[in-house]
Write a structure and sequence with these properties.
Domain GST N-terminal (chains A, B): 8-87
Largest sheet of chain A: 4 strands, mixed
InterPro entries (chains A, B): Glutathione-S-Trfase_C_sf, Glutathione_S-Trfase, Glutathione_S-Trfase_N, Thioredoxin-like_sf
Structural class of chain A: alpha+beta
GO molecular function, one term (chains A, B): transferase activity
CATH architecture of the largest domain in chain A: Up-down Bundle
Strand content of chain A: 5-15%
CATH topology of the largest domain in chain A: Glutathione S-transferase Yfyf (Class Pi), Chain A, domain 2
Strand order of the largest sheet of chain A: 2-1-3-4
Protein name (chains A, B): Glutathione S-transferase
Number of strands of chain A: 4
Oligomer: homodimer
Organism (chains A, B): Archangium violaceum Cb vi76
Chain lengths: 217, 217
């Protein structure tokens, strides 16, 4: 059955790979599943046809036969559950990899989203300069223990998993802030993620959409 | 095998049920699994023994035989995957219920966490009064489409699921703000969750810890 995902017609990041379709593309590339992409404009995302797929009017969505999903974490999990390559076989190791998926999205990403909001939506507010260090410290409040736990390991728990895929994707959003570079092992962890051939293919595919050039794949 | 979770020795909310152990207690009550609770102090949460279980130094954790998990969403999912009552049998319906789990934690909860942060950590800042309406509007930006999608249904997608358990838990944090009452169907949805016998047992158990009185169960 054909897999179809949605992505921005033009990503707000201009092709830096930070839009959430990159996470889904990466998962599909890791497990070797081909997929089609339907591009949606900002206007179309808020229209009934798209809202029927995604109640919050966002991307990505995932369609396969009569199954329609939204929410990046759930889509990545669905792919990981059905195809080998993103979750370990051992039951306990699998449960721990899923734990890191949720940790990436519900413990590490919220303060990073708050930092993005402070920059994008409150950058012109009178409190911005004084408040920004507080927000950055809340991000460090998550990165400190994450850095301790990772230590000098390559990945968070044994082999690369969907937990690493999401954690690297979440941390990538920090690069422009400079905070990631305060943690050598986390910066190297993110670089390891970006060096994976599947990530590169996913990145190139989303870049091709945003530059209008065909993907080399 | 005995299931052991951790909870606050004294919850910051004084027993309102907003600490995350309530979510795990609720899931265990829904599927009828007995569990033990190990209470941890704020100091003990940041010590090596607890950090080995939970790298971010929080509660709850989940131990069962040689499996140790952290992160509420992952624990609720683990319980839902192993015991009947929180995920539908049909594969597509199951994937959609999991989608709502992630939507609760990664789409709806982040702005609610930001509102909690604004109240708890920035309530004394000079920008608080002017900034608060912006933060509340970002919460409404999620509740508006959620309210539309729920409509007059009892639960988000068919029968009650782990997706509803997490969504109700996330929305409960909004009650003191008054925002929940702006959405009649969401307020009724949360009340339906609270009326479930399993929720009541979970709530009473966490309350007993915080009042020092034994649970009626």
């Amino acid at each position: 059955m054909t897999i179809t995902i949605t992505a921005f017609e033009r990503s707000p990041d201009g092709g830096k790979g930070l839009a959430r379709d990159t996470r889904v593309r990466w998962a599909l590339e890791e497990v070797g599943q081909p997929y089609q992409v339907r591009l949606v404009s900002f206007r179309a995302m808020k229209e009934p046809a798209h809202l029927a797929l995604h109640p919050f009017g966002q991307i990505p969505t995932y369609e396969e036969g009569d199954l329609a999903l939204f929410e990046t974490g759930a889509i990545v999990f669905h792919i990981a559950e059905r195809h080998a390559g993103l979750l370990p076989d051992d039951a306990n190791a699998r449960a721990r990899a899923i734990t890191w998926m949720f940790a990436a999205l519900n413990t590490v990403e919220p303060p990073i989203l708050e930092l993005a909001t402070a920059m994008l939506l409150e950058g012109d507010k009178p409190w911005h300069a004084e408040r920004l260090p507080l927000v950055k410290d809340r991000v460090r409040g998550r990165l400190n223990p994450l850095s301790v736990r990772l230590g000098d390991a390559d990945w968070l728990d044994g082999a690369f998993s969907a937990g690493d895929l999401l954690m690297v994707s979440v941390l990538l959003r920090l690069r422009s802030s400079g905070i990631l570079d305060e943690y050598k092992n986390l910066a190297a962890y993110v670089a390891r993620g970006e060096a994976r051939p599947a990530y590169k293919r996913a990145f190139d595919a989303q870049l091709a959409v945003n530059t209008g050039k065909p993907s080399p794949g």
